[in-house]
Every structure is written in C-alpha cells, then in structure tokens.
C-alpha cells in the first residue's frame, strides 16, 4: 500500500463508500458523465481499489476525475454498495491538497470556481448570489434572465423577496456576525487553507504557462479543449 | 399489476413527517431563481394551514454547492451544517425543514456519517465550539419542504380552486415529475417513496387531478452536474443531459413538468430555450416549450393564486398555454409589472421559441 492510497484511505468517503468492486459496470450504464465524456466510474473504482500509487498519482493528475457530475445515480445502483461519485470526491480533495489539480485543464477550473463560490459564501452567506451571477457569464439564463438582471430590485420586490434587507426572508442581508462565523468555520476546518493552496498552486502554474492570474482564471473558466468528449 | 407493485414500494418508503413546528432554512438556488416559490411555500403553510414555520435571518447557505465542487472540505461542510442545527436548537425546535435537495442530501449524508462514526460528530462539535462558541442537538425529524406540501396535499385539495385537468376535454393533465437526484438516490429510505418510485411529487400531482407519465429517462439527471454547469467551458455536459431527457419525454406529450429540486426547473426551463435557439427544436405544441414548474407553483396554481404572484413570469418557457388548459384566470398585461403596478420594460423575445 503506497502513501497516496494511505492518505485516501483516511478520507471518510473512502471508508464509507469503497467496498469491493466486482466490475459489473452497472455504474457506467447509469452515469450521465459516461454518456458525455470519455469516462468510466468503474475504472476509477478499480484503480483506487488496486492501491497502486503510481496509477493513483496518474489519476489525480488526470482530466478524468473532474468529469463526474456528482449526481450519485451510481450510489443507488451499485450492487456492492460502492459509491463511485463519493470516491471521486475523495480523489479530487487529495488532488487539490497535493497540488496535482493544476496538471489538467479541468482541474485548473478549481481557481475560478473557488473564487466565485467561496467569495459568495464569505461575502454574502450564499453559494450563488444575484449580484455576482452575471448575464455575460450566463447567456443561457435567457432573455428573461437578462431582464431579471436589469430589473433586479423591482422584480425581487414584486415577488416578495427581502433582497439585501434586514430580517428574515428571501435573499435577506445575512448579518455581519453570521458572516464572521462562516469565516471562523473556514479557518478552523481547512477551507481557508484549501483556498490558499489553490491560489498558490494556480499562481505557479500560471507563471509556467506564461499567463497572468486574471488571464489564467478566465481561460480556465472559458476554454474547452478537444478530446474530452465521446464524439 | 405494475401500479400495485409501485404502491407496495411506496408503502414501504413512507417517512414520518410531523404535523407542525418546523425550523426552516432556505435554498441559495431557489432564492436566486424562484424567489416567489419560497414565498408561496410559507403562504400555504403559514397563512392557509396555520402552521408554525420559524426562520432566523442568521441562517446561511449549507455550503453544498461549493462542497460538490470541492471548493470546501467535508469538515467545513459538516461544521456549517452543525451551525444551522445550533440555530435550530437555540430557537427551541427539533424538526428541521430545508428548501433544497442538495442540502437535503447532505443533511442525510452527514447524519448517517455521524451515526456510523461518532468520533466524527465529536470532532465537528469541537470545530463548531472553537469557531462559533455554539452547541447543537441533532434534529429529531428532517424533511425537504416538498415533504410538507406532500403531507398536506389533502388539505390543499380541500381548498383547491382548480384541478390539474384539461378544462375542455375533462382529461387529467399529463405530468412529468422530476425528483432531483440527491432527494433519494443516495439514501432511498429518507425520501417519500424511495429512489425507484419517489412518490413525493406523484402524490401531489395525482391528488390534484393530474396523471403522471412514465418515460425511459425519468430518473436521468436534469444535467446540472455542479461544475459541469458552473464552469462555462463544461456546459455542453449540462445541456446534453437535459436534451436526452426532453427527447425521451417528447413522445408522451407532457402538459407540464413539475420539479422537486430548486436547480432542476432552472435547467429544464433554460436549456429548452437554448436548444430552440441553437437548433429550432421546441418540445411543447405550436412552437412553445413544455412549461416547467416548481411544486410550490403547482400547489399555488391549484389554490388559485395569481400566476404572476407565483413568479411564473420569471420562466423563459411561457406558462400561458398551461394556464389556458387548466382555465386559470390571469391578466397578461400585468405579467411584467414591478411593485404597485409599476410597468417595467418588457424582456426581449427569443427567436425560435414562442413566449406569448
Ligand atoms: S456498480 Fe459497483 S461493483 Fe459494479 S462496476 Fe460500478 S462500482 Fe463496481
Ligand atoms: S456521481 Fe459521477 S460517477 Fe456517479 S453516476 Fe453521477 S456522474 Fe457518474
């Protein structure tokens, strides 16, 4: 058993959700990611269960672990009570902790994701927030999404939201002391450390690619290379 | 025969849902995209049915959307949940209702882990104390807010102004129900009806007169996929999976889709628009799409609430064909108004899909 597997084995999700895979392929047959990407949850489970560190390291640096949509359809169906989607989460966490995520195009997406989602949580107390959900980044939100964005206060008021106001209700302003508590939780439980790792590793990778951080972040968010999908 | 089998499964997967006194936490996605649905939920539960549903301004996101994109570690996620439970404990409640399926799945998962690994629970208690000086009890009952609407479906039927029936033909409307993956795929026993035949939406739709249709990709994901949507470069995954569902349901001519999870109605609504703009294909009749409703909107329509109070003007897919089938009265001129009847500029109209 190698060092990487040893670290993986400590992850709660591996302890709970990796039993013994019998290669039946049921997870592959229900997996939405396997229909779109060159992806097989079965192969991932097999590599982890092999405990082969070389193969695990390659997996942690690969595009593959970032293809899963975490729908957990596989979890319902696996006759052996494995949960490939949970195993993927443990692999992604380790890939980030080891700094390996920046070796793949899909892994590099961690930077824009973290900036957007952790930014929303720490600044507003929500994972998604209308002030940062921009039509330019979300043209699929449609002509109606554009209209809502352009008339945000009026539309929300009309619908009974309490947008950015005190007291309870939809999209209320979450009090400062509650946001401070979220920040304290981030500090105590490793989220702040993870954010620093992602920033630092991404900074080094951007340098290596000859990009400044803003360009690197934009590219990670927008660029889709070839070879990921089933044609 | 098959129906009897389903009923047997449904009776095996009934969960206990207390009648009253709930601590309520909101959903990030529902607040952003379907704010009126949460308003409607409280209107039904508090004003129509007189229930005690308590909310504190201090509750926050559960962190689930960030957790499922690996932006925060599991330890952080569990401690945020612990803080929500502390707020519930401090307010004197023991029944916990959340408005989001991602949250609901995570609450189920976290409670299961704490049960299996008490040492993890001890560590999370320590984390919360260190970070926030708070302590918590584990909720006695956990529900998704749809579980409550399901529980009170008879009371809602008693007050109904409309039925889910075509007013011209007298036929039940054909309903596609979409349950949201994390409701019961992870922990089937925690959802009404289990993972195979979840009954929470079926129970509502059938009780209010509709007919739920089965189709091959009924249990397929809506296409969200967390990072497969949030990152622009990955959205091909999201729309491809939505497309697969629509192609599969199309031959059954659904009158509308009803959803459980706050994200699914957004994707099923907006990706229909994108598919139409990109390919010209529409899935409803006469160049329209198939209307996609939240369960709160469906309940609100049945109760006779104004569709524009329900927020149905924030859908990209026009709901008017559905309103006309049911016979709901509405004033089209008020669709794009702000507060107090203030007219707002009209949205642009798409090229390939009719929006009334
Ligand atoms: S369904 Fe389970 S046992 Fe079968 S291949 Fe997938 S992980 Fe292995
Ligand atoms: S959780 Fe991931 S691996 Fe499992 S079915 Fe969903 S996309 Fe596939």
Give the second-level CATH assignment, the architecture of the largest domain in chain B. Answer: 3-Layer(aba) Sandwich
Q: How would you classify the quaternary structure?
A: heterodimer
Most extensive chain-chain interface: A-B, 92 and 92 residues
Name of the CATH first level of the largest domain in chain B: Alpha Beta
> Which stretches of chain B are poorly predicted, pLDDT < 50 over at least 5 residues?
none
Strand content of chain B: 5-15%
Total count of strands of chain A: 0
Percent of residues of chain B in helical segments?
A: 40-55%
Low-confidence runs of chain A: none
Alpha-beta classification of chain B:
alpha/beta
Order of helices and strands of chain B: HEHHEHHEHHEHHEHEHHEHEHH
Molecular shape of chain A: globular
Radius of gyration of chain A: 20 Å
Shape of chain B: globular
Overall mean pLDDT of chain A stands at 96
Main pleated sheet of chain B: 4 strands, parallel
Count of individual domains of chain B: 2
**Rg of chain B, nearest Å:** 20 Å
Q: What structural category characterises the helix and strand content of chain A?
A: mainly alpha
